[in-house]
Amino acid sequence: MSVKYKVESEETYNAVNCWRLSMTMVQAPMKTVLTWWMAKSDLHMVHGRLQMYMNQTLVQTQEFDPSQAPEQGGEPPAPINVDYVVGYETVTVQAGTFTDCVRVEVEQEEQLVRSWAHQNVPIFGLVKSEVYTDSELVMVLELVAYGG
Description:
The protein is an all-beta fold. It has strands spanning 2-13, 16-27, 30-39, 45-54, 57-64, 85-93, 96-108, 111-117, 126-133, 136-146.
């Protein structure tokens, strides 16, 4: 599965200064777009939106607050655990080339998650993440844009 990740902008939502993040997941013919408003002060989720498309046609939109998040609303990205740093690498994604990204690897049960983060990317610094199940790559998340 391919997942595209954006730190879209800084906005105010219900009088809270927020970062607006979005993730787009595509498994043809379905596309799901998750958008989260995260408080800049402590990065807690303030609001979310789930949009589902079938063959490029919007078929569902759902706005939700953190306590009412639908299961398919997923979780916004989380901080990278620096206890699992294995090195530093240069990573190129649609958003650009990032030199000296911290590379983190976490193994849980049958999964290995490899993530790269860079200090210039707002919020958690996430540039790329790969998920492997039984040594097979099953998901790639890449930063396509960041702003603020």
